[in-house]
């Protein structure tokens, strides 16, 4: 047995000098190939033309007050299978590990280990050629007492200077969600990505709570930005209502999101507020197909499933026969359908106006891909900057107000009758409009929170 190897127990204390982490307890696990470090608020960025990543770490178990802000050069990404069988793509960094005055470079993956017992897992890749493990022993290199930890990390119990803001969404890798997290951090706020599926709630008249993965209670949030995908509307809005019950400011309310997702109700609301829309018919498996077609001015016309999103369940019927076929096909599903006049003169173009706090902050024109009639970027359409009229701005602001949305993507089509409203989106994407206009829309959303909380 080589005598120059360090002998470790199954648990040991180590440090990461380059990350300014002076002491952290590690689970020594030769059964795990990859080493992992607990990290939250993980955000990649560019530094001197290279890819870096910044992240926060709570280095002490069961202590969320002590926070270390870290930065490291990004080595890459790696798909890691956890002990529970869950596969996750993680950022990988390379940094110096120090154990008992021995220092060497190791690769570490970054992941949220809140639900795990240890903030650090030391895998066999990092130990290869340097370490022997005695699994029956612990802390062969010495222990660090609770009092010592308090002294070591005293300066890291930093007072909160910004707001604590949660982004309630499903995909942390989505452009819009990443941009909002980045914009909040750049304005000095403590940003947390809250995965809808990993939240669960306690309904209580005196003390309502929301719990997160690992039993962590989500508390002391100043604001939440709901970014709820259509398939998660019911549960996402339930969580948003729970945050509202906890007196947390929500950038869009649960009630506003719910009504915006109901195509029929939203159109009725808009009409009640004097917003013009294309002539629309609504039916549930209609018997009078012929009259329904006449009601909207005949063909060509658009047939929409009431539950469709992002252009799915939307069909252009160019002839009466085609319209009857589509309506009858939907009828066989016993589905609720909207039949809407087709604005031919729009020539496959529409406008997306982004409204924040009653003001149009950006606008773009979307153009359908060749052979398509829907101006949808998800379907190969293009986006470009456009100058909108005062009337179009007025319609967008009125529509957002009618829906009671502080943040809204308002879709308008230019017709021979003037501008007509197509739809109001409560979780509008940022990629197309930021790319087309070069405007910091995510930053405007954060400013709206600051302004509302100040009030």
Automatic annotation (TrEMBL):
Nucleotide-binding as UniProt keyword: yes
Pfam families found in the cross-reference section: RimK, Rimk_N, Zn_protease
Gene3D superfamilies: 3.40.50.20, Acid Proteases, ATP-grasp fold, A domain, ATP-grasp fold, B domain
Cofactor: Mn(2+); Mg(2+)
Regions that span the bilayer: none
Domain ATP-grasp residue range list: 267-450
A single cellular component GO annotation: cytoplasm
An example Gene Ontology molecular-function term: metal ion binding
GO biological process terms on file: SOS response; translation
Family: In the C-terminal section; belongs to the RimK family.
Name this protein carries in UniProt: Probable alpha-L-glutamate ligase
Organism of this sequence: Flavobacterium croceum DSM 17960
């Amino acid at each position: 047995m080589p005598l120059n190897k360090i002998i470790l127990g199954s648990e040991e204390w180590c440090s990461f000098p380059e990350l300014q982490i002076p002491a952290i307890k590690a689970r020594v696990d030769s059964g795990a190939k990859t080493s992992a470090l607990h990290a939250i608020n993980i955000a990649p960025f560019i530094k001197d033309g290279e890819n870096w990543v910044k992240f926060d770490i709570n280095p002490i178990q069961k202590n969320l007050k002590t926070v270390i802000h870290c930065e490291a050069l990004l080595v890459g990404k790696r798909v890691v299978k956890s002990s529970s069988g869950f596969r996750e793509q993680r950022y990988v960094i390379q940094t110096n590990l120090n154990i008992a005055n021995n220092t060497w470079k190791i690769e570490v993956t970054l992941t949220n280990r809140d639900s795990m017992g240890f903030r650090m897992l030391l895998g066999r890749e990092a130990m290869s050629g340097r370490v022997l493990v005695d699994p029956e022993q612990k802390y062969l290199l010495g222990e660090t007492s609770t009092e010592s930890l308090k002294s070591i990390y005293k300066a890291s119990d930093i007072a909160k200077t910004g707001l604590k803001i949660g982004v309630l969404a499903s995909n942390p890798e989505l452009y819009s969600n990443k941009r909002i997290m980045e914009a909040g951090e750049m304005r000095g706020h403590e940003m947390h990505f809250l995965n809808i599926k990993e939240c669960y709630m306690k309904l209580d008249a005196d003390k309502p709570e929301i719990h997160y993965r690992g039993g962590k209670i989500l508390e002391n949030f100043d604001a939440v930005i709901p970014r709820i995908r259509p398939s998660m509307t019911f549960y996402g809005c339930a969580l948003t209502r729970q945050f509202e019950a906890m007196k947390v400011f929500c950038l869009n309310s649960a009630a506003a999101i719910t009504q915006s997702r109901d195509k029929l109700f939203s159109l009725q609301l808009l009409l009640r507020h004097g917003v013009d829309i294309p002539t629309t018919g609504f039916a549930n498996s209609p018997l009078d197909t012929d009259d329904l077609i006449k009601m909207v001015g005949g063909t060509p016309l658009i047939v929409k499933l009431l539950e469709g999103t992002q252009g799915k369940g939307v069909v252009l019927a160019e002839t009466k026969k085609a319209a009857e076929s589509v309506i009858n096909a939907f009828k066989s599903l016993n589905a609720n359908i909207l039949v809407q006049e087709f604005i031919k003169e729009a020539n496959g173009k529409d406008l997306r106006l982004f409204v924040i706090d009653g003001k149009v902050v950006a606008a773009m024109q979307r153009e359908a891909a060749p052979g398509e009639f829907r101006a949808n970027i998800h379907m190969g359409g293009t986006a470009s900057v456009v100058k909108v009229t005062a009337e179009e701005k007025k319609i967008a602001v009125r529509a957002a107000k009618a829906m009671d949305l502080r943040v809204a993507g308002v879709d308008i089509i230019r017709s021979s009758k003037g501008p007509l409203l197509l739809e109001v989106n409560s979780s509008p994407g940022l990629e197309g409009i930021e790319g087309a206009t070069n405007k910091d829309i995510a930053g405007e959303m954060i400013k709206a929170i600051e302004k509302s909380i100040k009030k």
